[in-house]
Fold these 4 entries.
Entry 1:
Amino acid sequence: MPENVYTRLRKHHAKKDVIELQTYFDTESTVLGFVHQVNDEFVSIIEVDEDGSYDGVIVFRWDTIFFIRSCNSELELITRLSLERGEVNSIKKLNITSFQNAIADINKTVGYVVLYLERLEKKYCYVAEVLEMGEFILLSEYTLLDEPMRSEILVRMSDVTRVGYGGKYEEDLLKQFQDK
């Protein structure tokens, strides 16, 4: 079978090695991590940073990937460091049959979700608790302006390009609310 994005993701899922990839929606940054799950439409990536530390989980449509980098000495070192830390070994599998199912599963499991809206001229990222979901998602967003505060935001489900949880930024943000 010829290599394509789907077969490559399945290969790296089986190998349990770190890859670097980029999507059409975010051409300014790359995703570094392990392929945690992959199906006919979606992929779940356990993100790690350059020293192999866990940095959250993201889910997105794999057909938005335009490159995958793998099999170089830097990525092999990150794989080894991350596996030695053991942080990525206990990450729960998600229902990634749709964005709606992934969002509901994440929100139920950790109490919040990170939603990315990248199809628009400006990119948006919300760390929020999901209040209602259908064609639109009603969120109770966590924000830091002068102080921690919450606000409700309504976004269209079809504008969501990625969902996630557990990253360092959002965990630090949530601590601000717990300390309040």
Entry 2:
Amino acid sequence: MSFCLPSSYFRRLNSDGEVDLFACLVDGHLHGPAWRGTLGGGFLVSPSLEFTSDDTVFLYPDCLTALVGRFEDGVMLEARAGRVAGAAGFCGPRCGAVRPAVEAAAEGEVTESCYCRYCCCCK
């Protein structure tokens, strides 16, 4: 019996029709970053499908404010504030997934995004 390893974009939607997971797979392996939607409209962007790395980005729904740091299974352990400065480019010729390019925020620059004022998770 033979089988084919997926080489395509993968998208999983939650019960509300929102993006739960978006990734590019080449020969069954993650190629570029994986994006996972979060409650409230933000995204986790990670080089790991398990969302475990020292370089995972939590991207706020405003798509400008970000936290970059160490995550395990999608749980933030430590992070630094940043602002999206653009995109880090395509992950390769067979895939169009991009990673946000985040630069460090100036001291006190990112205290809360405009979205946070309406979000119960930001105190």
Entry 3:
Amino acid sequence: MRSPAVLWIVMVAAATQSLAAQRRVQVTPFVAAYYSARELGKYVAPDTSGTGVKGQVLQTSSPAIGVSVGMMLSDVLGMEVSGAYAFSNARVQACDPSKLCLYQDQGGTLMVTSLAGRYRPRRSNFEGLAGLSMVIRGGDIWSGRSSNTSLGGMLGAGVVAQVTPKLALNVRGELHAYSFDPDESGSDWNSAMAMDFVFRVGVPLGGRR
């Protein structure tokens, strides 16, 4: 299940190499750490067992790989499209009133993509980003849903560090915020405002650094 997403990232990087060589665009393959700061939903159905157990669905932290393609439209403003594949599982967790929790991880797929505007001040290695985010889930745990695509907003900030005259590193943190409901319009689970963080280190190829 994971190979198509990884292949897609590799194909995007390869397809844009010729443009990067002409300095029209900047291609940045990266490695990253994915972290979900909030639960995806809480189980709110009546507790018929009387035990006070509460359930929630989480997304596990994991490494990720990806690629971004950016283009500067002026000296300080540009745009960027980015995609990352996180090796993250969905986690179903149940906790009793004493905070004793049991959980089970469910295999799945997770793609975090974005389309953002990029701001880079003159004579500075800082960059700021803001735009649209799209998170795509897959796997058996979500197979009953009519849609596994969540739309939201994205904010990011980072620096481009020139390590050597020919090698630069792009270090960045991104926040992807969106609404998610595990059972969509069902009444057993409530919706939550998910907040996913992606901390990434990449190597910019071509374009303006």
Entry 4:
Amino acid sequence: MTTLDQALSSYEISMLNNFLKNASIDTSFTKDICWFDGYLCAINNSVELIAPSEWINEIINENFTFESIEQAETITPLAMKLHDGIDNAVRNKTYIPIYNWHNFNNSEDASQLELSARWAKGYLLGNMMVNEELLELDEVKVALMPIVISSGVVPDKELEKDDLSRIEMVAKIPRVVQVMSEFRNIMRERND
């Protein structure tokens, strides 16, 4: 059984994280390894298979060029390795978001909530890009609510007293990923 922490070493995660921070399209927030993990998780949970040439454009801007051939030959396989590791972990029901297991003590001392919010934003963007059909289902909208709340899109003060807190929602993310995987499988069977 493959787990994500077997797919990439800490050094590889750090290399990919540094690359993502420098190559981001959007300057309103930094895309990092947590964001990318969520984004690729959604890409892997899409109803249709998505080619790397389609999802790679979201992480680098159109004017971006690699610093060298060596950088391209290093980063591209790392991105694919993370993609494949997530896919294997989700299929084997061992997926745990990267912010739960990777040591981020050198990443601006970001809190668990900040890291999970980055992951959730990546996941939501990935879903909006590739799962339009799936997102129309009421069951999916309900299932995604923990990720929406974890993203910080809904400020804590706007949550109802009866609602679970962001911390409680973050704890539900691995289960939501599995539920989304099950929805994806149903939709793929329906489309065949």
